[in-house]
Amino acid sequence: MRLHVGCAMWTHAPWQGRLLPQPLPPRERLRAYATWCNAVEGNTTFYATPARNTVESWARQTDPDFRLLTKLPKSITHERCLTGADEELRSFLTAIEPLGQRAHALWVQLPGSFGPADLGTLAAFLRGLPRSHRYAVEVRHRAFFEDARAERMLERVLTDAGAEWVPFDTVALFQSPPTSDAERDAWAKKPRMPRRVRALTDRPIVRYLGRDDPARTVEGWQPWIGTVAGWLREGRSPTVFIHTPDNAEALTLARRFHDDVRAYLPGVDPLPEPLPAEPLTLF
Hints:
The protein has about 280 residues and is of the alpha/beta class. Helix content is about 35%, strand content about 15%. The chain has 2 domains: about 40-165, TIM Barrel (Alpha-Beta Barrel); about 165-270, no CATH class. This is DUF72 domain-containing protein.
């Protein structure tokens, strides 16, 4: 059994020289990260479609079973609201072709304004997507979490398209007032989302946001340990992304989450040994 875990990015200043080697050229940064985790969120593609040679570099730095959850550009999801974006979508799909199976799912993150009345638009958009990719949808409108009818309608749309619902669990963050600048910033910017643990496909995806205190982050993810282990027992192949407000310890915490699931379910394959932060010497 293989559990995929990762972070919101593969390069982060607090990791350099402490967890990852420094300096590293851009063409080596994802490779070093991939010795720590076997998945990563592709948030950068939200802001701009990457050059194809950049994506080719990502593919060269990772094994075929590495998972990259690639976010659709905001020009498609937020500016055009899933309509009239055929040209942007074609450009994006062409750019990410070199990833092959590493493009675990194309991530459709929708704005908080996208509510139950917009489900027809989502259904039409998903029907028009090529079947060569898997898709995962993240919604932030509270009606989908508080109105049972809206929840069922969204699940029906996603199930018909074979798409997964990506939960963003922010319960731990908002459980008590912030204690750092990064937490205060997250309180202002992150959505207050309830915990959702229902998987729609054989490849569930979880985004979990903890606290800057690692102990509180670990405490907050405890409900996920049994859920993820249960998915693995059912033959599903989950991917879990660990965030904290400052992400300073996200790399080590992602591996800790993997260790916690393995302690609960020893049949889970181990992660690779991380690349040393300091270069190896002969003496």
